[in-house]
Amino acid sequence: MYLSPNFKSKTAARKAIAAGKTVTVFQEGPFGGNEPTEGSVAIEGPHYPEPHRFYGTATLKSGIVISLK
User: Fold this and answer.
1) pTM metric for this prediction
2) Which residues contact 22 (CB under 8 A, 6 or more apart)?
3) Angle formed at CA 16 by CA 64 and CA 32, multiple of 5 degrees
4) Contact 7, 15 (CB under 8 A)
């Protein structure tokens, strides 16, 4: 899954989450549209076609990312 907005680094994503900005996840392609709203998901970034530079685990609550490891 990818983060929205498209972060260039995991550090930038963590700073946005800590600042209280709304960060969500989405799945590209034919599997999109059924993203979970609670629990943990694997993420990667930045978005394709750029090469992925980071991977992690996002914890979701009500569809919003509340932490990123």
Assistant:
1) 0.88
2) 64
3) 40
4) no
Taking a C-beta distance cutoff of 8 angstroms, is the pair 37, 62 a contact?
yes
Question: How many other CB atoms are found less than 10 A from the CB of residue 50?
Answer: 10
Q: Which domain holds residue 55?
A: 2-68
Q: Which helix (H) or strand (E) holds 26?
A: strand 24-26
CA distance 21 to 32: 23
pLDDT tens digits for 38-63?
999 999 999 999 999 999 999 999 99
DSSP 8: S
* Local structure of 16: helix, strand or coil: helix
- Number of domains the chain is built from: 1
